[in-house]
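User: Just a sanity check before I run the rest of the batch. Below are the structure tokens for the first item. I only need the designed sequence back.
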């Protein structure tokens, strides 16, 4: 755990941020529209990296803990006829729709004064500003935890693969030496006295055994090399994810 933390710190310290993932913002909250029960309704919209389940769970916990608002539903959630002073002085139906998959989420917030009277940014700018503020209150803490977790997990993967490849390279070095040793032994046996039939048979048997050993070791070297290359790909993916998470953490600090 300590070594993983040191590795993570080194990435943070030297700012190894992949240009592949360089972005200017962590998230952008906008006014948008969404299809809802056959109508197009105005909403406050944001897209983030965490998957839908983690986002849903964190959102529900945030609302319950900070505002005593309990949402009902799976990913199409609502709190009906609630007094939510953060958003409006009037009783409202507060809707949250979360879509996406395991790799990202979209959050859409809607507010209705009754079943049909949905708020719109043109006529209810205060309510829309309040919903944006609500997301701005929720997202930094949630994303901070998410990206720290992602950073630690990928730093751990990076370190583990580095250690695994080191062992494989060491094994290949030993195997290569054994192959070379067997090859020299075979060359010496080929030069040995083969005047008797018994001697020829014995030498031939040893040479065949050494050749078989070399074939097995050469195959193991090849298998190890294939594993090393595959590990490098996984390691690169982990590094890119780590760099991405670190870049997002830096941007969160600026918000």
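Assistant: Here's the designed sequence for the first item:
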């Amino acid at each position: 755990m300590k070594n993983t933390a040191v590795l993570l710190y080194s990435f943070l310290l030297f700012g190894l941020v992949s240009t592949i993932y360089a972005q200017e913002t962590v998230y952008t909250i906008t006014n948008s529209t969404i299809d809802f029960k056959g109508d197009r309704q105005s909403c406050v919209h944001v897209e983030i990296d965490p998957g839908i389940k983690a986002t849903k769970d964190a959102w529900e916990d945030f609302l319950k803990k900070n505002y005593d608002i309990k949402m009902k539903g799976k990913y199409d959630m609502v709190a009906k006829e609630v007094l939510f002073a953060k958003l409006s002085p009037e009783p409202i139906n507060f809707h949250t729709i979360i879509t996406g998959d395991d790799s990202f989420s979209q959050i859409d917030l809607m507010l209705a004064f009754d079943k049909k009277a949905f708020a719109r940014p043109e006529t209810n700018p205060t309510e829309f500003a309040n919903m944006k503020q609500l997301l701005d209150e929720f997202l930094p803490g949630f994303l901070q935890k998410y990206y720290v977790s992602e950073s630690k997990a990928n730093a751990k993967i990076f370190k583990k693969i580095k250690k695994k490849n080191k062992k494989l390279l060491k094994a290949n070095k030993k195997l290569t030496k054994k192959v070379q040793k067997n090859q020299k032994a075979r060359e010496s046996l080929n030069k040995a006295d083969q005047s008797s039939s018994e001697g020829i048979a014995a030498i031939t048997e040893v040479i065949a055994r050494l050749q078989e050993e070399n074939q097995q070791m050469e195959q193991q070297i090849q298998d190890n090399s294939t594993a090393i290359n595959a590990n490098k790909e996984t390691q690169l993916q982990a590094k890119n994810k780590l760099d991405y998470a670190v870049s997002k953490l830096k941007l969160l600090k600026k918000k």
